[in-house]
Amino acid sequence: MIVVTVGQTGIIIKGHAGYAENGKDIVCAAISVLSQNLVNSLEMLTKDKISCDTKSGYMEITWKNLSEQGKLLVDSFFIGIGSIATTYGEEYVRIR
């Protein structure tokens, strides 16, 4: 299961969905794409300073103060993550 934990100063994404075998897991792939796109968008479309730590099955994105643009991008990220969680179920994606 992938657990997405949100706080005031960042997001932690941990785990593997287990929806399908490695390399064919569309839930893991979707979460990975949304997560990496959030990092790229915050870096390229805002002046917000963020930090990103990535390992297999783990990503932590942190910030101090997000601009309104940054907050909008994070909200958009959660719309996507929420849609995946709703479609595939909490056994694969859980948001805290």
Which structural class do the helices and strands define? alpha+beta
Distance between the termini: 13 Å
The Cα radius of gyration reads 13 Å
Q: What's the overall geometry?
A: globular
Fill in the CATH topology. Alpha-Beta Plaits
Mean pLDDT: 96
Please write the CATH class name. Alpha Beta
Q: Figure out the total of helices.
A: 2
Compressed to H and E, one letter per element, the order equals EEHEEHE
- CATH architecture descriptor: 2-Layer Sandwich
DSSP strand content: 25-35%
| Largest sheet features | 5 strands, mixed
CATH superfamily: Cysteine protease Prp
Description:
The chain is of the alpha+beta class and 96 residues long. It has a single domain (2-95), classed as Cysteine protease Prp (Alpha-Beta Plaits, 2-Layer Sandwich), CATH 3.30.70.1490. The chain is 43% helix and 27% strand. The chain has helices at residues 26-45, 68-88, and strands spanning 2-7, 10-14, 50-55, 58-63, 93-95. A five-stranded mixed sheet has the order 3-4-2-1-5, covered by helices on one side. A hairpin with a 2-residue loop joins strand 1 (2-7) and strand 2 (10-14). Helix 1 runs antiparallel to helix 2 (68-88). It is globular and about 40 Å long. The chain starts with a strand and ends with a strand. The model has no long low-confidence stretch (mean pLDDT 96).
